[in-house]
Amino acid sequence: MKQQSDESVKKAMHSRQLGLKLIANVTYGYTAANFSGRMPCVEVGDSVVAKGRETLERAIKLVQKNSQWNVKVVYGDTDSMFVLVPGASRAEAFAIGQQIADAVTADNPSPVALKLEKVYQPCILQTKKRYVGFMYESLEQEKPVYEAKGIETVRRDGCPVAVKLLQRCLCELFETGDLSRVKRIVEGTLCDLISGRVSALDLMFTREYHGAAGYRPGAVAPPNEIAKRIGSRDGRAVPRAGERVSWMVGGGAPGAALVRLARTPREVARGHVPPHVTYYVTRAILPPLHRCLSLLGADVFKW
Questions:
Q1: Which CATH superfamily is domain 201-274 in?
Q2: I want to staple 220 with a disulfide (CB 3.0 to 4.6 A). Which of 182, 245, 249, 259 is the partner?
Q3: What residues does the DNA-directed DNA polymerase family B multifunctional domain cover (predicted)?
Q4: Residues 113, 59: contact at Cβ < 8 Å?
């Protein structure tokens, strides 16, 4: 697909590979759903999982026992492996990675194959399915591409100020390796927040509204509270189920419930509403940073 220059051909090939993937996934899902499935057969579902795990574990053992490569598999999940190549240059990492891919492919029956997708330099592997790093897809690539999976910079449940700060800090860390420079960036952002120099748009959270019937009685969800508040003023302005609702956590009396402090963009624009600085610092901005940087020995909360 990457070798094609014709966009229509590339689009057709992408649709075909997506169709094959969905057929495989749906077939597995149907057989594994033993109560609600349309064609349940637990043995088939279990065998798919077992063979996948067996193939992955065999590949990991093959890599670990080869002393020539001097590498370590630090993470393996479903159909992929993260291999640490300590002390190697990027060129050496690509060479060793290709050797590993060829060896694992030769160890499996056709059409099972392992492909070297990319080299991260550097990389932070946070937890399962959560990692971030500078990605190189080929040895000829000179400038890395920032890539993140599962962390706050690619999720929609955080506020922009936290997302932007996390990505800026990680890029600074990857480029310089200097935590003191990262600390100065964090301190500068917190000073801007305290002094009111952060835009209200960067402090907005966004969640999907599930409709009036989509919440349990007594549930304290900001989208639901905002919808009730809007409905009490104008029933026609209530957001529809599935619509995304935005709000900022404004300042309030000590001990006030946070859900009561949710302010819509219109309410923020109508009057000066200061942000709840303590909430943003301790609950929105610092925790994502700490989850990444604590792996390097830094305690962000002490900054």
A1: B family DNA polymerase, thumb domain (1.10.132.60)
A2: 259
A3: 1-294
A4: no
